[in-house]
Structure formats: C-alpha cells, structure tokens
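Pilot study result, target chain (159 residues):
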Amino acid sequence: MVKILFQMSKKLNKKIKKSNKIVEKDLLGNQGEVYFSPDLDEKTVYFEGFDSLTGTIVTGSYDFNKKGGVTSYGLSLGDSDGIALTHLFTMENNKSFKKSAKHFREILNEDTTYAGILSNAMSTGDCQALANYMDGLSGVADGIMSTGASVGTGDLCYA
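Predicted structure:
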C-alpha cells in the first residue's frame, strides 16, 4: 500500500487518507482495525474491518474521482457465517461522503424504524423497503438506482 500511495500526487494522497479516516471514524465508528487497499486504475479504495467485541466483519469500498472526492460507496456487514446485509450509495456530490457516513452510522445504531425494516427484510428476503428507506440518507444522490440494499445472499434492490 505504501508504494501505491507514493505514486499518487500529494493532494490525491491527502484526500484518500482523509476519506479513509471518514471510513474508520464516521462510517465504522472506530470499531476495531480497518485495512485499506487502493486501486488507482479503478479509482477505488477497498476496506475491511473486524469488530472483536461483536464479531462483525465489514467489507466495502468507495470510488473516487480524479481529485479524490468520493463518488459512491458500499459495504457489507456479516459474521463468520456470511454476509447479513449490504448497502450501496451514490453520492450527491463529492463533499457528501462524511455527512452520509455519519448518518449511516446513526441509522445503523440508533434508528428503530430502520431496525424494524431490516428485521422484516431479513425474515422475508424482500429488501425493497430497506432500499427505499436508506434512499433518504444524507448526501445520497437523487434518482433511481442511487441506493442499493440486500439481505443475506439475495439480490440487490434499488431505490
């Protein structure tokens, strides 16, 4: 990873480091270690984390533009038995990532409406209501297919 980061411009390197901190702090809430792997050809940074307290495994990625602004992100949460849920988001603009990550973390941890919709989606396998609800996340772009959600190994539903 260090070799790749030095091949980037200093400005792009700084933006990616800032986005990585947003993933660690705002999206994942500093729960355990997070590992990052940038792919400059794809303009994507992959990440993986593990929370030793809950056993939650998080894998995901974010895409960035040539200036380093995050254009979309997605993550899957699960445990050693497999993936429980997946969310994908297209950003409204390249300054929306931090706001969206914080709001996602709040919804995941504190929103009882989300918990009910997620529970229903997990029991029925129907993720459309989940995608529709998450489409209201701060910083997410307008339009169809700007938000994706799935439960288990099911298909993605878009809103």
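One observation from the pilot: The two ends are 35 Å apart (CA to CA). A full batch analysis is planned for the follow-on phase.
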